[in-house]
Structure formats: C-alpha cells, structure tokens
Specification:
By secondary structure, the chain is an alpha+beta fold. It has 21 helices and 28 strands. It is globular and about 80 Å long.
Length: about 725
Amino acid sequence: MNRPLDRNGFSRREVVVGAVVVGGALSVGCSPADLMSAGSKVEVGAFGPFIRFEPDGFVTVISKHVEFGQGSHAGLAAIVAEELDADWTKVRVEQSPANAKLYGNGALGAQLTGGSSAISNSWEQLRKAGAGARAMFVEAAANRWNVPAGEIVVRDGVLTHASGKTAAFADLMADAAKVTPPASPALKDPKTFTLIGTDRVRRKDAQAKSDGSARYTQDVHLPDMLTAMVAHAPRFGGKVEGFDADAARKVAGVVDVFEIPTGVAVVARSTWAARLGREALNVRWDEGKAEKRGSAEIAVAFRDLATGQGATDQKWESFGAKGDAAAAAGGSDAFEAVYEFPYLAHATMEPMNCVAIVDGSHVRLVHGSQGQTLDQLNAAKIVGTLPGSVEVETLFAGGSFGRRATFTSDYVAECVHVAKKVGGGKPVKLVWTREDDMRAGYYRPLVVHAVRVTLDKDGLPATWRHRIVSQSIMKDSPMPSKGVDQTAVEGAMDSPYLKATPVVDAQVAFPEVGVPVLWWRSVGATHTAFVMEHTIEQLARKAGKDPVEYRRALYAKAGANRHLAALDLAVEKAGPTASAGWTRGVAVHESFGSVVAQVAEVKLVDGAPRVGRVVTAIDCGTAVSPDQIAAQMEGGTCYGLSATLYGEITLTEGAVDQSNFDTYRVLRIGEAPAVETHIVPSAAPPSGVGEPGTPVIGPAVANALLALSGQPTARLPLVRSV
C-alpha cells in the first residue's frame, strides 16, 4: 500500500475520520466500527445506505443481514416500505456490502446476523431511513408544485396534492436527492400502519428460490477458478506430521497440494479431482495434543462436577444468588434431578463453502456470510491488510443456525489461506462435504444440569440449587462476555421461576475440553428451557397441583405478565381437551426477548414418541410479518423436535462417530407435527423470532410423556441411535 500508515496500520486520514465520528480527539482513536471498516470504499447514495430509488419506479432496500432461510429480507424491506409509503409490489431487496460502520448490527457491535436480532436491531434505524427518504420526496414535490408540504399525500409510491398534481418517486428522484435529509424524521403512529402486521408482507426471495435463479456459493463459477478441499485431523487438536503429496498430484486435475494451519489443502480443476486427490494424501497426524476422550467419558466427568463428585479445583461462577445458600443445599424431602444433553451438529442443508480471491492486499470473498465483520478481520489478518480492504459479496445461504458465524471464520480462513498460496488473483472455491462439517465442524456443547429444589407449605419453590457444567462458547472470543458466559446460563439465570424462589444458589462451571463448540439455534435455551420447564412440571406434580395453574401462580409471584399472557393464549387456542388418543404437555420459555408457550400433543407409536398437534403462542412485540413469524415457529419447532427425538453427536476416543444423515438422524417430513401459531397482540418494538420457537418443544414433549407414563426424562435425545 502506498499510503502513509500510523503505527496501528491505518492511514492518518482514517484515524482522523474515526476520531471525528466518535466525537473525540485524535488521541482517543477510532471506534471499533471505524477500525473494522478501515480501507472500505463503499459509496453511499443521496438517500442513505439502506435505500436506493430506481428509474423504473422500483425501490431497492439494502439489507445488512444475510438471508439464510429465516425470511428477514421481507421484514426489513417492509419496515422501510411502511414509513416510505412505497408500493410493496415494487420493492426489491439487495444484500449490502461489508462495512461495519454503515451496516453494523446495533445489538452485536459488528456486521453480523445472529441472536434473532435482524428485525429488532433494525427497527428504529430502518423506520427513520424510510421516513427520512419520504420527507425528502415530499419537500421536493412541495418545491416543484409550490404548495405546503403538509398538504401532500404519499401512497404506494405516488405523491399527490388536492390540486390534482401527482408524481411518482421516479419522477422526483433527481430533485429529492438534492434535499437535505431531516435529522429526526417524523415516524408514523403504529396505529396507521397499512403494511406492517399484515399478511401482505411475504417473502421477496420465494420466486428466485423456486425457479433456481437464487445464487448460492456452489453456483459461483468464475474464469480460471480452482476448487480446493482440505484434509482435517480425525481428532480435534491433531496436527499434520506428513503426507504423500506426490500421490495426490498424480490424480488428473490436481494442481497443487500444500499444508495450511488446519490441515492439508488439495487444489484442483474440479471438485471431484480435489476429492480424489485428498483421498490419495495418506496424511500422518501428530495427535499428541489431540482430545482423545469419548463423549461418554466427557459426560461422566461433567456429571461428577455437577453433582459434587468431580475435581475440587474446578472454578465455579455464580449466575444467581438469593438468601442463604446453605439453605438451598439442605432441607428434607427435596426434589433432585440431573439432566444430560449431548453435542449437536448444526446440520445445515448447505455445507460450508466459500470463494476467495487474493490479489496483493485486496481480498474478495463470495459466500453466504453470516458474520461479515468476523470474516473481514480474519481474512485481513491472514493477508496482512486492512479489514475494509476485504470485500465480501454475501450470497444466499442454505441455513446456518449459527454455524456460519465462528470467531475464527474457520472455513473462510481456510479458503483465504489457499487463495493466498495460489496467488495471482486467481479465484479459489473451497468446498466442505457433509462429512467434513459433521466431523470437523462446531457443535452445541454437551451440557449437564443438576437441580435441587425444596417446596414451601403452598407447594411452591422455597429453595433452588442449580449447577450447570458446559464448555464455554465465548472463551477466547473477540467479543467477550461481561461476567459469566451467558450463552450457557441464559434462560435459567433470568427465569421467572428463580425470581419467584426466595433462596437461590445457581452456579456454572466451564471445564476445558478439546471439542470446538458454538452457538446453536437458541444457544443456551436449547438446554435451559428443558431443565426449567421439565423441573417445574415435576414440581407441580410433587405438590399435587395442575401444571398450568402452578405456572400461573409462579408467573404472578414473579410479575411475569408476558409469560402468563402467552400461556393463557396457547391454552385457550388448544381447547379444553387433547385429541382422542393423544396426551398433552405444556412449556413456556423466554429467549431473545420473546416469550413462547406451546401445548404439544404426543402419543407413543411402537414405543417411540410421535408429536401431532402443536399450538404455539408467541409474544414478539410488534409483529412485522405474521406469515413469516408463523413460518419461523413451524421451522423452529421442527428443528427443536428433531434434536429432542434424535439429535446426538458422539465421540469414540476423540473421533466423531457421525458423518451424514444416515448416522445423524433428523426429523422426516412424515414426522413433522401440525404447528398452529397465535401472536400475542403487542405495541412494543419487535423482538426475536428466528430462534425462540426451537427450545420450547422439547420440554413440552417431555412433559406430555411424563403425563403419559409417569416417567421423567433425564437425558436427550429421546430416541438414541447408539
């Protein structure tokens, strides 16, 4: 680079700009978003970074969030279109470039799609963007027609005045672009919304995904592009000791073979050639520091810790403390339970893949990026350039559930390493097979809970002792948690049941294990929802109380009005009795700002659970797209049910046993329940929808089985394959 750099690697101008933006002196330095965007050349139009008006009358909404099946593009576009009063049939959605300063997630501090925050963190931002652009057009029309701006009406992209004058956005585009955007545009009263909250808000990508024109990473074909595959160690922590490069190079189509930090890369002219070349490598692995324990051994160690039988030097961290902790450990006639949850794979429909071009200090990535900022930072570190000099073209992605947003950008980093080694600005597509991702990817942690509860004279919890043992997802994170790693305790720490209990002693431990772990759809709630709801169900029965009324009493005691409203709506819509031959289970849980209640009907078929009807109630604040909320509840329920019934990654002597859907069983179409979704009316800002439907179905099913057989569930999955 031919620019003067300061000692931090940024041009003097970039540092000055960063200081100005955050309102500090030069010595203060840049904001994180400025630093992460340093080197970026993204241009912003007259109407801001989120809206572009087209000469053909269409409005393009720029989405900072990736579309990987959750349907957020439609919701984001609807927020803009509502305030803009655009014609919904003439609204398009385009993926934004990577720039944390312009397109950062306000909830996460980086350009990242996660935490069910796409709609919630964009709500005010996009409303103001749409309202501001609308005001610019109104002023332009007022100036052209010489009438008061307050007399102009905007509807479906057309501005009109009582005098009969009319103009479409396209007619006024040039004049509106010259108007200074308002600093604080007036927003609509939600009572006047005509688009948000209606079934008109449907997906904008349905046609492209139906006719095959939607572009995914495997659809990318660039001139002279090479394909790479990487051989990974069979055990986590293994390192390359040696390999037979000559044998791989003899495979027709193989171009090069070399070691990268995570294994051995084979570069070829086709995917098939790369795969055959990889099979010929005969890699020898140094497993001196590899994780060699099986999952069963890890589970026993976690169980011993949770029940006080394990190592005494393990550090414990509190996530809830009220009253006398000694009282929580004592008392007679206590309820005690231990719950065990296995490792889970994300099992996305589209395995990991990426296209990278490294040309000097410039990097271009083309893939379904979930965390553009993370990918920019990791690629920049490998190449030695500014994060903003890493261009990211974000495509559609075939699912993620958290898998495509790792702190290391694992598969993206591999692709950049290979492209850098290949050199010459030649594009390289890295392909992971299903087996690669199943055996060398990231997993929902294996977790063990131990719970001990005593009841008061009314049958309600008097003391609650809780121990959680898990690997830490946030360990070594560039975005460390303040205090305890909440990804392990969320859903328990803030549970209304603990709020309603006078004495609480809740602690978590994070032993070191060499298996890579990551957030998995609904993260901590994947296990805390089950533990809290199945425990409450058993406590209700121990107290001789109806489980629904028991919850109502606890919600009233905790002031959990949203939980109560969701429960009441789900129970009302489910009706007074279960379908003939079915048994009901109830569960309620809050995650990502939303409360979901479910009533599940379950029966046993050949000894295995079968789930039929599931009635869902959700309080997610303002419902931007009711149709998409229902779709997410259906998808989340099926995803959670799949894990509840079958999901399990096991390790034997450190090596993952599962490799594809023949050994990692998932829910099949014929097993999917009928999911009814009902939305609790709310005027609050939107909260999460993508994940909250996943964790509730497991305890609802377990509670139905408890009612059916009298036997509680202490371990998932319910149907074990090994």
